[in-house]
Design goal:
globular, binds magnesium ion, three-stranded antiparallel sheet, alpha/beta, 7 helices, six-stranded mixed sheet, binds adenosine-5'-triphosphate
Length: 257
């Protein structure tokens, strides 16, 4: 029986002649928090679109158990709906009910946009739009959250605060999370496993497990060690963060620890 929330078996994908993902296999358990990091243009957004079912893989199979919600890297809001109406869409369930009363106000509170509830996306900054998207995804009951750099447009303090809020909400209502981020620290602080992808076509370069309960401080030794390993894998010398030639980088062990 397939008891995994998400399972990819030998998945490859290309857009025309551009091969974006090659023979990628990954299993994510129910309630697991997986971060995906990799170079820009390597295929991370494509990977989430495949998992959500928005794209069909060119070959291989993908199974998903449970409804998924995606937070898009850019502008996934409906431009003709206000912030409040966009979030309200997230509250709707497949059975058509409107969700718990007060939930919408609670989500607006969470993202600190009470005064902007009736603004349309074009009247909000990029960071505000990102917060509305996150609220829309968290408002609902979807089992699987696919988060595509959900904090990238936020200032540092808002980023840290929302990261903490997301952490708290997931603890209160466990879900399966796949988070794409460029921030190694964020990945190591939040995730049970960090999957590092190669450049295009994306394959799994290594998987790091972070067997440490959350919440974790960014300065937790397990977080720091994971970041150093990831930097090493990426060819950066953790001592100086200077890039060292790839030949000097130890091969990944495939995460069998
Ligand atoms: N719909 C599409 N049609 C054609 N090519 C596409 C399409 N979507 C993505 N690509 C190409 O696939 C590759 C991977 O894109 P993708 O958006 O998945 O990368 P990414 O890892 O998310 O990058 P970033 O970190 O910059 O967000 C890129 O070369 C991109 O040009
Ligand atoms: Mg992307």
């Amino acid at each position: 029986m397939n008891d995994k929330a998400v399972r990819l078996q030998s998945v490859s994908h290309h857009f025309g002649s551009v091969e974006v993902i090659r023979d990628l296999s990954l299993e994510v358990s129910h309630g697991e928090y997986v971060a995906v990091v990799g170079p820009s243009g390597s295929g991370k957004t494509t990977l989430l679109n495949l998992i959500s079912g928005f794209l069909e893989p060119s070959s291989g199979t993908i199974t998903r158990r449970g409804e998924s919600r995606m937070v898009h890297q850019q502008d996934g809001l409906y431009p003709w709906l206000t912030a409040r109406e966009n979030i309200a869409l997230g509250l709707r369930t497949r059975r058509g009910t409107a969700g718990r009363p007060g939930r919408l106000e609670a989500m607006l509170d969470l993202i600190g946009l009470n005064g902007f509830a009736d603004h349309y996306p074009h009247q909000l900054s990029g960071g505000m739009r990102q917060r509305v998207e996150l609220a829309r995804a968290l408002a609902g009951e979807a089992e699987i959250l696919l988060l595509d750099e959900p904090f990238s447009a936020l200032d540092y303090l808002t980023r840290v605060r929302l990261r903490g809020e997301l952490e708290r909400l997931i603890r209160e209502r466990p879900r399966t999370v796949i988070l794409v981020t460029h921030h190694l620290e964020e990945a190591a602080q939040l995730a049970d496993r960090v999957v590092l992808l190669t450049g295009r076509p994306a394959r799994i370069r290594c998987v790091l497990e972070i067997p440490r309960p959350r919440p974790r401080r960014p300065t937790d030794p397990a977080v720091v060690e994971a970041v150093e390993r990831l930097l090493g894998e990426l060819g950066a010398d953790p001592e100086t963060s200077a890039i060292i030639p790839p030949d000097h980088v130890a091969r990944a062990d495939g995460g069998g620890r």
